[in-house]
Design a protein that fits this description.
Elements: H1 2-36, E1 42-48, E2 52-74, E3 78-83, E4 90-91, E5 96-100, H2 103-138, H3 144-177, E6 179-181, E7 186-188, E8 198-199, E9 205-223, H4 224-236, E10 239-240, E11 248-252, E12 263-268, E13 278-285, E14 297-314, E15 319-320, E16 326-331, E17 337-348, E18 351-356, E19 363-367, E20 378-382
Parallel strand pairs: 1-20
Antiparallel strand pairs: 1-19, 2-9, 2-14, 3-5, 3-8, 4-7, 5-6, 7-9, 9-13, 10-14, 11-12, 11-14, 12-13, 14-18, 15-16, 16-17, 17-18
């Protein structure tokens, strides 16, 4: 009876030993298969750094300003009778803008002209008397005192005529000021007064503003640090000037579009702003269609030099750490990923100019670096920008992308 009770235990032990043996055999075979089928290194989009000739372009914020601004004001007091322009239109120098009631000024002019005529008559009489007394005093027919009085009256009459002419000129000016004309050619804004308004009574009243928009100025600022770095690069010969004492400039509008016409740099201010540490620069741009308006925010691209052997990398390859440090990932000789701290300069399109940290023939990871870590072994493949990639019909081999070729974009 006891042997019958031990029999199930013996069968269970035998079964367990068989299962363990089968499991050990399965592990051995599976390990061999896994070692034989290890995945290849991940493919990563890279570029090989090569020096190139690049134009050093600094993109700086700025505002547009009219080249000439004239504030039209009332120079005499009176009632506005007419507004002779359309608001927002282009006007020419000398064009009629406003008409102030000329009646009182016409009356003053007529009075001054009459006074001049009276004084001219008195001058004629005094001159004739002095000329008549001149031979008589020589013949002792009149006294010397009478002759001197006649000469003095003649000179007083001359002065009176001169004063009357000045008063007539003043009256003529006031009469002309009643007709307000454009001092310059340009675009006029809104009218600041309407017909029937009393202007110029106690102070010079502004009537409108005219601005010349073609050409137009772009005022922008640049830090003293950037100017000093450029000057040092020029002096050392690392960067050549675009042309002596000149720099080409272009505009990028607020919506990101490029203004088609280029301008010229006019001057750089000699004073540094103590609060910002920047200097003000001004450029002039042609504006024949007047699409550029004063006050618009723009970004001014200034070509300030040429680097004959610039090292550039795509902007998407550059990583910025929490401390502000800049780095890229490079592929070493054995295919291992290595971090590299760099320093960037100006931007050239969608690339950064690297001033320190990279050399020619370095392999920089551009796409997919989010999926790898320093020390990992990768397979570098040439990176193709998204804009340059041409869509193609999927094939059975290309239907499923290889590991690491999904872009790596965030």
């Amino acid at each position: 009876m006891q042997r019958k009770r031990r029999s199930p235990y013996l069968l269970g032990a035998v079964s367990l030993a068989a299962l363990l043996a089968l499991s050990a055999c399965g592990k051995g075979n599976g390990g061999a298969e896994q070692g034989a089928g290890a995945p290849p290194p991940m493919e990563i989009g890279t570029i090989t750094v090569a020096p190139s000739k690049e134009v050093i372009v600094n993109e700086l914020p700025g505002r547009l300003q009219a080249t000439r601004i004239a504030e039209v004001r009332a120079r005499v007091a009176g009632i506005v009778l007419q507004r002779a322009f359309r608001e927002g239109s282009d006007v020419k120098a000398g064009q009629l803008l406003f008409k102030i009631d000329p009646a009182p000024f016409q009356a003053d002019y007529n009075s001054a002209r009459a006074n001049l005529q009276r004084d001219e008559a008195n001058l004629y009489q005094a001159r004739m008397l002095a000329e008549r007394y001149e031979p008589l005093v020589k013949a002792n027919a009149v006294s010397r005192q009478e002759y001197d009085n006649a000469v003095a009256a003649y000179k007083q009459a001359q002065a009176a005529v001169a004063a009357s002419k000045a008063a007539l000129d003043r009256a003529k000016l006031n009469l002309d000021y009643a007709t307000v004309t454009a001092p310059i050619s340009g675009r006029i804004g809104r009218a600041l007064v309407t017909e029937g308004a009393l202007v110029g009574q106690s102070e010079v009243t502004p009537l409108a503003t005219i601005q010349r928009l073609d050409p137009i100025y772009a005022n922008f600022t640049q830090s003293v640090t950037q100017l000093s770095q450029l000057r040092e690069a020029f002096d050392s010969g690392k960067i050549k000037q675009v042309s002596p004492n000149e720099a080409r400039v272009s505009l990028v509008l607020e919506d990101g579009t490029r203004y088609p016409l280029t301008g010229k740099l006019l001057f750089s201010d000699v004073t540094v702003d103590q609060t910002t540490g920047q200097v003000t620069l001004r450029a002039e741009f042609p504006n024949p269609k007047q699409v550029l308006l004063p006050g618009m925010y723009v970004r001014v691209r200034v070509e300030q030099g040429i680097d004959e052997a610039a090292i550039t990398v795509p902007q998407q390859a550059v990583q910025r750490g929490p401390n502000g440090d800049t780095s890229v990932l490079v592929v070493g000789p054995e295919g291992k990923v290595q971090p590299r701290v760099i320093q960037t300069g100006a931007a050239v399109g969608d690339r950064w100019i690297v001033t320190q940290g990279l050399q020619a023939n370095d392999v920089v990871i551009v796409e997919g670096f989010q999926k790898v870590r320093p020390g990992a072994v990768v397979k570098p493949v040439p990176w193709k920008p998204a804009a340059a990639a041409t869509p193609a019909a999927p094939t059975p081999a290309a239907a499923q992308p290889a590991a690491g070729q999904d872009g790596g974009k965030p």
